[in-house]
Design goal:
It is built from two helices and twelve strands. By secondary structure, the chain is mainly beta. The chain has a single domain, classed as monomeric porin ompg (Porin).
Length: about 260
């Protein structure tokens, strides 16, 4: 019980810190996290990483994160918080953070209801704040020991504050209603190695040409019973990015995760 309280206190504190700081685009690959939660009623981990980026910024970023989850019967919930920081020649190039919380409730058959919220910040792409709130259904397409695949659909409300622009010194505040559709396959390569990927498509409901695409593939291997190595590659594309920001970004992230 003490361990459980410690894990959730740490997760809640970091999640609240992210909200207070007003924290990079759209969603996060929750599939790799979801499987960890299913292995234990209470699960927690902390990790550190180095990231190589190309696109709006080229360089190396250091970051750290925390993850905590709970699973009991038809209920599954987890929270993930992450922060990254880079500084070159005393100039901050990238300073971003996000916190993501999700709750699932198993319905009849292969269907699961889910609600989620996320708060983000990314200074380099001039994103001062992005809040997401969503709800939808998740469907199991395949559930086997070595392979799983899920399809999810959701409604998502989005609130953004963009950074100051040259022609308009006032930050732009934007709200949008979006559909969020994702496909998430996962392969168990061996008992200690797994490959998971998730691809999101998020068009704006009142203007489908304004759409975001996000794909992240994560390879996870257990080095020790409580130590995991993760290698992730993510691609983000925005058809209508803020002024002066490239529409695409690529990240390659290597991280070590310590299971609490």
């Amino acid at each position: 019980m003490r361990r459980r309280r410690t894990i959730f206190t740490l997760a809640a504190a970091l999640f609240a810190a992210g909200l207070a700081a007003r924290p990079a685009s759209a969603q996060v690959n929750t599939e790799a996290l979801r499987r960890d939660v299913k292995t234990s009623p209470v699960f927690g981990s902390v990790d550190g990483n180095f990231t190589g980026r190309a696109g709006n910024v080229t360089g190396v970023i250091a970051g750290a994160g925390v993850f905590a989850g709970y699973h009991s019967g038809d209920h599954l919930a987890f929270v993930r918080a992450q922060g990254d920081y880079t500084e070159f020649d005393s100039v901050v190039k990238v300073a971003k953070a996000f916190a993501h919380a999700r709750y699932n409730y198993a319905l009849l058959g292969p269907f699961t209801a889910e609600v989620f919220t996320q708060v983000q910040r990314d200074r380099f792409i001039r994103l001062e704040l992005r809040n997401l709130y969503g709800a939808g259904l998740r469907t199991a397409l395949v559930e086997e020991r070595s392979f799983e695949a899920f399809l999810g659909t959701a409604y998502m409300f989005e609130y953004e504050i963009e950074g100051r622009r040259l022609r308009d010194p006032e930050p732009a505040k934007v709200t949008a209603h979006r559909a969020s559709i994702y496909l998430a396959p996962s392969w168990a390569i061996s008992k200690s190695m797994r490959l998971s990927t998730v691809a999101y498509l998020q068009p704006r409901l009142d203007g489908p040409t304004d759409a975001r695409f996000f794909d992240e593939t994560v390879f996870t291997t257990d080095v020790l019973p409580r130590l995991k190595v993760r290698i992730g590659v993510s691609v983000r594309y925005d058809t209508e990015p803020p002024e002066g920001v490239k529409p695409w970004d690529v990240e390659v992230k290597n991280s070590l995760a310590l299971v609490l």
